[in-house]
Specification:
Elements: E1 2-8, E2 16-22, H1 38-46, E3 54-58, H2 65-71, E4 72-75, H3 89-99, H4 106-115, H5 131-142, E5 150-153, H6 163-172
Helix pairs in contact: 3-4, 5-6
């Protein structure tokens, strides 16, 4: 996935200044932008949900926003794709399994949490789990969706914790 000089609005003070980034299997791309709004806009562009005013979004060297939308999930994007803070991990897994077209029964939810090593957090509100746990859960659940092969994570640092912890999760996945 490549963001090639994408931007929204005009300088100075553009909602999303012109930026570029590349991500590939085993090589997460990182895009740092200022303001509260710009990371969300960058995620919407990177996920193929918003057309930039300038630049190109490329998947395997081709401009195909529909293909990007089908194959990239937005993860933890504020106001767009983030769990309600008081939802428990069990509730999030149940909801995401249903969204992925899988049966969200109790056994399946327990199996998913066990496989991710998150059983201790089953009844914990997502706002109260370490950022690395939150990112692991949301990323793994997003990858259960049919056709999803990539993820766009938005501003995980806003939840606190050490960057190296949650970034290690991204590298592992």
């Amino acid at each position: 996935l490549e963001l090639d000089h994408v931007g929204i609005g005009e300088e100075p003070g553009a909602p999303l200044p012109v930026v570029s980034a590349v991500a590939a299997p085993g090589r997460p791309g990182v895009l740092a932008v200022e303001t509260e709004q710009a990371p969300v806009l960058a995620s919407l562009v990177a996920g193929g949900r918003m057309q930039p005013d300038t630049g190109r979004l490329l998947l395997d060297g081709h401009e195909d926003p529909a293909a990007v939308r089908r194959s990239f999930a937005l993860v933890d994007t504020p106001g767009v794709a983030e769990p309600f803070p008081v939802m428990t991990l069990k509730q999030i897994v149940r909801e995401e399994l249903a969204f992925a077209g899988q049966r969200p029964n109790r056994e399946h939810v327990d199996t998913v949490l066990d496989e991710l090593g998150l059983r201790d957090y089953v009844d914990t509100a997502v706002q109260r789990v370490p950022t690395a746990v939150r990112i692991r859960l949301l990323v793994e659940l997003a990858l259960l969706r049919d056709g999803v092969t990539g993820i766009v994570i938005t501003s995980p640092e806003r939840h606190g914790g050490a960057v190296e912890d949650w970034f290690q999760v991204v590298r592992d996945v």
